[in-house]
Design goal:
Helix content is about 45%, strand content about 25%. By secondary structure, the chain is an alpha/beta fold. The protein has three domains: about 80 residues, Winged helix-like DNA-binding domain superfamily/Winged helix DNA-binding domain (Arc Repressor Mutant, subunit A); about 100 residues, Periplasmic binding protein-like II (D-Maltodextrin-Binding Protein, domain 2, 3-Layer(aba) Sandwich), CATH 3.40.190.10; about 100 residues, D-Maltodextrin-Binding Protein, domain 2 (3-Layer(aba) Sandwich).
Length: about 300
């Protein structure tokens, strides 16, 4: 019995999929399956039910699951004993939202790379629902998500920052930054995110709760495209205040509060609770000190 066999078994059981476990361990599916079969041969016991569509642990598999996890923890503890506690090392797959990618993340990842020579990252930019699904499957190691995952028992979550939203419009549609009424809102096309975005759910909840209608809607899975279309007078949109402020200063857009309270979104650094690598809380704490969604301090792509 080897540690690699126990790792293959543990991640296949945790993620419920040979393909997801193989991706997590950066090995082929055939290699992972071989290691599980070798472990079963050593124990002379079946660890998974082969008849189910999804991997299901047998009684023996359930009994050894926690022991396998403990062995992986011991491996990490041994590694951490000889590795400086402040060093971030290893290869990590990260999932981030577009707003995070446009603002503080480039500076953050630059500082991690400059300080830690044994660190590598593979970055995926997508909407929250996709990132959460990939995080759950173990396809990414951590995600920076625009909602509170703290209550989910499967994840550790460190709060990073809070982002406020305002209505945005071209000066040719609404020339002066001011309070916008429900009657005015229903006269414009609303530009919002696609259904798999957490920001779309926030928009839908706000519209429904406050009984606000719109003339038409246009959905898009890109925040920068929504912003550009708002500048181009396609319609109005709910934009992060930190993104909107420099565009108001440059007179590309006007900003508008509402007669109803506008959404506030909390961003969290989340990772799987079963991933005990000490680099992850170090990455989370560093993200907390760097998380500034002010576009002025990052990439102004609308100049």
């Amino acid at each position: 019995m080897t540690l690699k066999q126990l790792q293959a078994f543990y991640w296949a059981a945790s993620l419920g999929s040979i393909s997801a476990a193989a991706a997590k361990l950066n090995i082929t599916q055939s290699t992972l399956s071989k290691r599980v079969l070798e472990l079963e041969s050593f124990l002379s016991q079946s660890l998974f039910s082969r008849s189910a569509q999804k991997l299901v642990l047998t009684e023996v598999g359930t009994k050894i699951f926690d022991h396998a996890f403990r062995m992986i923890q011991i491996e990490n503890e041994i590694y951490n004993t000889v590795t400086p506690s402040s060093e971030i090392s290893g290869k990590f797959k990260a999932g981030i939202s577009e707003l995070t990618a446009m603002t503080w993340f480039p500076g953050y990842i630059s500082s991690v790379y400059n300080i830690n020579i044994n660190f590598e990252a593979e970055i995926y930019v997508d909407v929250a629902a996709v990132l959460l699904k990939r995080l759950t499957k173990g396809e990414i190691d951590f995600a920076i998500l625009p909602f509170n995952s703290e209550q989910d028992k499967h994840f550790n979550a460190v709060q990073l920052s809070t982002v406020k939203f305002l209505w945005a419009a071209s000066p040719e549609l609404l020339p002066v930054s001011s309070r916008i009424t429900s009657e005015q809102l229903q006269n414009f096309t609303h530009l919002t995110h696609t259904a798999d975005s957490h920001l779309k759910r926030i928009y839908d909840q706000w519209i429904t709760h406050n009984h606000v209608n719109s003339a038409r809607t246009m959905t898009c899975n890109s925040l920068s495209a929504i912003t550009a279309c708002t500048i181009a007078k396609v319609g109005i949109s709910l934009l992060p205040q930190t993104l909107l402020t420099p565009l108001v200063i440059s007179k590309k857009l006007t900003a508008h509060v509402s007669e109803f309270e506008l959404p506030i979104v909390d961003y969290y650094f989340c990772w799987n609770i079963s991933d005990t690598r000490t680099s992850l809380p170090l990455l989370a704490n560093l993200a907390r000190t760097n998380a500034d969604y002010n576009l002025n301090k990052a990439l102004d792509i609308f100049q």
